[in-house]
Amino acid sequence: MTNVIRTTLAVSAFAVVATSCNYDKTTPGYTYMDDMYVSPSLETYQATEMFDNGMEAQTPVEGTIPRGYHPYQVPNTPEGYALSKTDASLTPANFAAMDPAEGKELYNVFCSHCHGTKGDGVGILVENEKILGVPGYGNTRLPDITPASAYHVIMYGKGIMGSHASQLTFEERWKIIRYVWKLRAEQSGMDDISAEAPATEEAVVETETTEEPA
């Protein structure tokens, strides 16, 4: 009798194990806590009855912008570039007080291969004759550029230089430009503008005219 019970239990256990296995590799098999596997959230552009337009995706409220987004409304035109050279309001008020050292590493990553570590226009790509005609930052080569016009070029590109807007944040762009202005002073044999700026505890870029092209 004992052997019969043992045999019955063994066969039953084997049957449970065998039938519980799922050989269909396209399905996850049986689940016991569906909330752990099936997300209750809506997928992007999914149809839904939750909203009047029948879609998950909703347009932003008029007059709002995404968190961390800074609209840059100067157009990518010759007139826009000229405006960036003359409109002082496009440059942050605390630009001179910013620490140039904060932009050095970013400059070496994104700029030095063309413009050179000294800002003389002799980067490694120029040395290897991969590209030519890269200007140095000194007054003799670029006499009329401004911090805002440099920002404009980073946003849209100019000549053989492409846009870097998608690679750098608003703060990173201004940090690079501040370091470029230090290199510009060195290339021009002048004192850095920070020597004339009042001391501040922390230099924070704050301006209303900022990031991505509208």
Automatic annotation (TrEMBL):
Kindly give the InterPro entries that the UniProt entry links to this protein.
Cyt_c-like_dom (IPR009056), Cyt_c-like_dom_sf (IPR036909)
Q: The Cytochrome c domain covers which part of the protein?
A: 98-184
Read off the SUPFAM superfamilies from this record.
Answer: Cytochrome c
Q: Which UniProt keywords apply?
A: Heme, Iron, Metal-binding
Composition-biased stretches, type Acidic residues, lie in 203-214
Molecular function (Gene Ontology), one example: metal ion binding
| Ranges for region Disordered | 191-214
PROSITE patterns xrefs:
CYTC, PROKAR_LIPOPROTEIN
From the record, what ranges are coiled-coil? none
Query: Sorted alphabetically, which PANTHER family does this protein's record hold?
Result: LIPOPROTEIN-RELATED (PTHR40394), QUINOL:CYTOCHROME C OXIDOREDUCTASE MEMBRANE PROTEIN (PTHR40394:SF2)
Q: What is this protein called?
A: Cytochrome c
